[in-house]
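Summary for the funding panel

The consortium committed to producing paired sequence-structure records for every protein in the target list. Below we show the first two records in order, beginning with the earlier of the two.
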Amino acid sequence: MKDLKERAIRGGFAKLCAQAANYGFRIGSLMVLARLLDPKDFGLVGMVTALTGVLGLFRDFGLSAATVQQVDVTDEQISTLFWINIAVGAILATVTAAMAPVVAAFYREPKLLWVTMALATSFLFNAAGVQHSALLQRQMRFTTLAMIDVLSWFASAGVGIAMALAGFKYWSLVAAAVSIPIVATLSFWIASGWIPGAPRRGLGLHSMVRFGGGLTLTGLIVYVGYNFEKVLLGRFWGADAVGLYGRAYQLISIPTDNLNSAVGEVAFSALSRVRHDPQRFRNYFLKGYSFVLGLTIPITISVALFAPDLISVLLGPKWNGAAQIFRLLSPTILVFALINPIGWLIFSLGMIGRSLRVACVLAPLMIASYVIGLPYGPKGVALAYSTAMTLWVIPHIAWGLHGTVVSLRDIARVASRPLVSGALAAALAFAVQLLCGQALPPLARLVMGGAVLLSAYVGVLFYVMGQKTIYLDLLRGFGKRSPIEVSASVSI
């Protein structure tokens, strides 16, 4: 595919724009909902999703990634995978509904019975759109996918805010969560134009199911490792603690999730296409890695430096208790920027066994850190979580890269420039805020500190570290025009 680079850049740009819009919707709706609802309302829904999220990892059984990763795939194969996804979705919805009394009893909160049953329906809606989304991704129609992302989050924000204004309290959060898969799946069907056929046997799906199963199992183990602290906090500290920790965690996760979603889908598709060309594979990966890291570092610094002002402006004064948690979680933004791209590399190369082994080491490490921090409440858990993740970074990267065309030295070289730029910019922004910002209100301090930080960071990164050409190359790639084949049929 001669125009792969330009299509990947355009797709990445479209996804970044969509994620920027989604970021605005998520932050904007959170700002409104945080003022309309109480921490306990968020905590109630968070207590359920911490448990049902485990089942959510099975919603596509990794079969969407398997569809994208394969070099050749037939219409009959994808139709069969579609019906497998529907069956899995139905099973998950049934299991979640059956779990509702157990969830309510575990947390000793009767309200969670119907919340759990309502959230169970999202599994069916998700399952119906998995393969349609995979087809759009396989065809590299990332602009279409970006538009669907924006539409889904816009609908979710609108539903949540409207119901909160009407006085539905925590049910507004439930409705917002369920509306996302409904709108997205309808849009995937319309955009792809693909109608699944009847399922068939003997289509050589074993390798795809094995890949998807390994991916799902890895995701399950990692999810438990990353989210078990919310279960522990809910059980031992209650809904208010989960509400405060959960909103801080959500604010931390939004930029990481958005960036990984925007760049990760494009990178996975592009790297899967060139995995048999080592030089192109290495170059594509390192450019994507540099790009994600370059965007993430100023976000990490902003959270660490301006946490109280960010919480005050975004959530309001009744959430001040989340500010210290927010700051303690800030290192994880950078950690995920460093380790998430390793997943693109591992999965595009089909190295599912390695990812599973890494997950089996990471999850117990995370859980042990939560147990250590739990006696000290949400702040103790946040500190333990960030410490464990920081200590894990280098072993994770080294293990993931072992035996591939990308070396640890390559990563150190690529990461050093934005890291040094960020350190210098952080020192300057901290000094300016310390000297000039104490008399200003929170919003003014944020604007001033953010402007100084971003200006210093971009100046050092572009002109001192010589990274300007990388971003100009991305812009040139976006500007090039090349024929893009858009077909509703499956490429065989």
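The next record, for a separate protein in the list, is shown here:
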Amino acid sequence: MKKRSTLLVRTLPFSIAKRGNAAAENEDAYYPPQAGERQGRVLRFAVSDGATEGSFSGQWAQRLCAAFCRSRTSSVARIIDRAQAEWASWMKDYLRGREERGRPIQWFEEPGLERGAFASLVGLTLSTGVRGDDNGRFRASAIGDSCLFQIRHDELVARFPMDCSDDFNNSPLLIPSDTKRLPEVLDHGVKSCAGTWKQGDAFYLVTDAVAAWFLRQHEHGVKPWQTLDGFDQEDKHPLFERWVQDLRLRKKMKNDDATVLRLAISYVG
């Protein structure tokens, strides 16, 4: 029996809060949370954009990313169930902590808490082929407008779930933290795709502000991944932030939390 090979992926995340907000108010999330190398036969990655209209949407986005990447199932419903269970536990601790500090929930906070949190999600699963083969397969799932792009030989070979910049709007279908609101999303909002990867491919998981910019650039004959590749060292994160701020000022990118998780498939052994 042929043995499966081992995949090594270098991850590099960049994220910045919307203009006017502190870094702690950034409601985007990604997983894994640190730059570095990961290896294995099956690896999972995710990016999520918490909606400002919800309460604690950044916390919800974090749990969605972690649930996707720590789960072994491909069922989006089961992944969200896990995230909702972790969310309920976190919310219980949060409310108890408020009580213990003498700062119970006020009446004006109750509607937001009842409404809950909302977030998009795009998750990627990479799996290897047999040893000696330089390619494998990927699966991706998405709800909302966070996107995935795959680059091979300096060309865009896959985009998901949005095909063009006109696909973005101000009311994407999002994942709710409230279990009662979930059936509609699962019935109408889950998208999936599958394909192959080769050694040397790069994937970009990005939230909607960056995704819309990326697709507009590509539609004008520009290769936007070459710009993103320029932010290739951890100590260049301030350069990414300045770049985003400049695009915002020139109305080339909307003022929203902006996140890029770059994945470089560097070795299969």
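Regarding this second record: The chain has one domain: 7-268. DSSP finds seven helices and 13 strands in the chain.
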